[in-house]
Amino acid sequence: MTRSPIALRVWGDYACFSRPECKVERLSYDVITPSAARGILEAIYWKPQVQWIVERIHVYREPEFTNLRRNEVASKASATNAQKAMKGTLAEPLALYADEDRQQRAATILRDVEYIIEARFDLLDDRDPVAKHYNMFKRRAEKGQCFHRPYLGTREFACHFAWVEGPIPESPLTGERDLSWMLGDMAYTPLGDKQVKQADSFCSHTRRPLKVEPQFFRAIMRDGVIEVPSHLYAPAEVTP
Amino acid sequence: MIPRIDFIYLFDVKHGNPNGDPDAGNLPRVDPETGHGLVTDVCLKRKVRNYVGLVREEQPPFEIYVKEKAVLNSQHARAYEALGIPVDEKKRKSKGEKKAEEDKQLTEWMCKNFFDVRTFGAVMTTKVNCGQVRGPVQFTLASSMDPIVSQEHAVTRCAVTTEKEAEAQSGDNRTMGRKFTIPYGLYRAHGFINPHLAAKTGFGPDDLELFWKALEQMFETDRSAARGEMAPQALICFEHADALGNAPANKLFQRVTVTRNQSTEGPARSFADYDLRIDEAELPTGITISRRL
């Protein structure tokens, strides 16, 4: 099996890749999801012309869990109140009272994780040379540079990273393990300009409406390696 | 404007509970496998917010969005009573792209007025992504240098809360309570300040200075029966000349080691029982270390 052009070792003390079905009291998947892996790559280097594709995930430690219960707030910031405050028509000072809006939530998180993410990228603009983006990513990864600090699922679990040159080290994990259905990534499908009502999000560059849908896959780990199916990444629309 | 900074923050606690675990009856948080104490990122962020709210008196552009009523004076509290946070998406008239543009303006306004929003970020109740602000300041969990030992103290109270209790005790009026402390713990937290996200939220040099001040002084304004004596012991910043960074953060963090002082024996009971070493030899180009505390 040939390795992907890009391999990045990532590790950290804790991680939480929340299962979408258990996200109130967060429960992490056993391993990093392709979408979280993509987030790490994007934290180091990303341009609108680049679409990251995670091809393989190597797992180097047996998944181990620990528990963390925290006082969290129940509400998000209210856009309506912010709008009123902005216009000066909100009677009370704008605030959210954490101690009156409490939710105690437990998180079952991973500890001591280490992965190698194998990835490639698709160029959405074929006028761009592939080598340019590849070298920019490589340079950054080698120097420890990043656009923003990458993290393992949530921001409090910041991670470290290192460029991997040459063959990918074998994992000490052996045998086949079925990790069941896992979130693969979110699919961002561009909608027509008239379909703004159905939009879940807007492209930050073209401002066009997008439909966002989660894609799941059956994760099988063989000797510590998870193959990420390519169908998770339908070709995206070329940026004009 | 703001450089990329990776920082290490050391703080300690004497006869107090730095961060109770709601899952363990408010015992100090502990990593069950190693016995090391933990303080969550949100616990530290809460103290930064409270400090800034206090010293800047809740005035824009240093208002605090996520407040604790306990830290406001009662006069305020009464005036704020009416405030609920209704999720009132239905009343918004604008749609689609116009709404997205409006959300963007709202987000900018929130960043401009609220210190905590532009420092730590916030999520607004909007469906689209622009309602989410990622702040430039990121904390990790703090963990103690050595395993901690929780002590349980039984305390008595010479009063009771209800009449019924008083009757049951036929006037004796004594109740027992429990209090947990750790005799001593030195904690280390890592943090990251990101220039690109700072530019997005408008987190400027004044904010950064205020943030450092908060780390230096926030325990002074957070005294309570539970906390004991908490104090910052060191704040070591690695500043990168390049906004993207000049060295991997893990390599920089390794330069700061905290070990037990060889001349002391027994369990650590003060910061003097530790040796803090900062290796400044052969720093990568573009990195400057400064010890602010």
TrEMBL record, chain A:
Family: Belongs to the CRISPR-associated protein Cas5 family. Subtype I-C/Dvulg subfamily.
Transmembrane segments: none
Class of the enzyme per the UniProt entry, highest EC level: hydrolase
Organism: Aeoliella mucimassa
Keywords attached to this entry: Antiviral defense, Endonuclease, Hydrolase, Nuclease, RNA-binding
Enzyme Commission number(s) of this protein: 3.1.-.-
GO molecular function: endonuclease activity; hydrolase activity; RNA binding
GO BP term (any one): defense response to virus
InterPro entries in alphabetical order: CRISPR-assoc_prot_Cas5, CRISPR-assoc_prot_Cas5_N, CRISPR-assoc_prot_Cas5d
Name used for this protein in its record: pre-crRNA processing endonuclease
Function: CRISPR (clustered regularly interspaced short palindromic repeat) is an adaptive immune system that provides protection against mobile genetic elements (viruses, transposable elements and conjugative plasmids). CRISPR clusters contain spacers, sequences complementary to antecedent mobile elements, and target invading nucleic acids. CRISPR clusters are transcribed and processed into CRISPR RNA (crRNA).
Automatic annotation (TrEMBL), chain B:
Residue ranges crossing the lipid bilayer per the database entry: none
GO biological process, one term: maintenance of CRISPR repeat elements
InterPro entries per the UniProt record, alphabetical: Cas7_Csh2/Csh2, CRISPR-assoc_prot_Cas7/Csd2
Record-linked NCBIfam families: cas_Csd2, cas_CT1132
Protein name, UniProt field: CRISPR-associated protein Cas7/Csd2, subtype I-C/DVULG
Protein's organism: Aeoliella mucimassa
